[in-house]
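Encode chain A's predicted structure.
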Amino acid sequence: MSRRLFYTDHYTIDLPPGHRFPMAKYRMVRDLLTADGVFEFVIAPLASASDVELAHDSDYVRRFLTGALSAQEIRRIGFPWSEQLVRRTLASVGGTLAAAQEALRAGWGGNLAGGTHHAFRAEGSGFCVFNDLAVAIQWLRKSGRAEHVAVIDLDVHQGDGTAQIFGDEPNVLTFSMHCEANFPFRKQQSKIDISLPDGTGDGEYLEQLRTVLPQVLEFRPDVVFYQSGVDGLYSDALGKLHLTHDGLKQRDRLVMNVVRDAAIPFVITLGGGYSKPIELTAEAHANTLRIAAEVFGSD
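Encoded structure for chain A:
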């Protein structure tokens, strides 16, 4: 089984002082996992424009790549445009494409970035430029490598972009479990949505998750994508839930055991995490990959 993880942290974005996005977490996660001595780390390849256009409007793709988005479009994304942002965005998508191929080869694959589920077909939003999940799903389907695909999105924020892109697509199951009173405030319609109240803790969270996972298996997906955001942590500045590190570990193990027992290729993307201090976010993300190595095997 796979030990290979794809990373993008060699691309950094110059953000203004006080910016809320924790860019440093990506390198911190890789450093934590490097110390474990379990994984091999591979630089994520850059996705091509034609790859991205499998899920996104070609005009939007062109205008982002050339720096021609409007000021309003850039504000909605939340990052200042730069050539470095372009490279990092393409690497984030490329990492998920590579992780998907790794999952088909070895049972599971992981991208130490990605999970950019707020990107819509023709616009970005919420720190998400392109939707790596959607691009990889469309690549698998259009290349004949998968027909039915499921997304398990456990970020604290609804996967609205993914829901919108696949809203009329019966062969893609989108499942999002998120905090109701949180961004995005205009929700989309996933195939399955579970909205949680502020302050939800480990017990209720895990109970809700257990009720839905059988529905994911009933869909009989050829591949499962896991948006494993850790912004449900009690310490998260943008989360509003009250999950513990142990609760997140139980969450990850529950999802992974179900998928492994069904022998479905499994793709992990990181998603959100905004804890203060940032070390709490990095540890939670690292734990997800550690559990994957235990559940799926790392040899």
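The longest helix spans residues 83-106.
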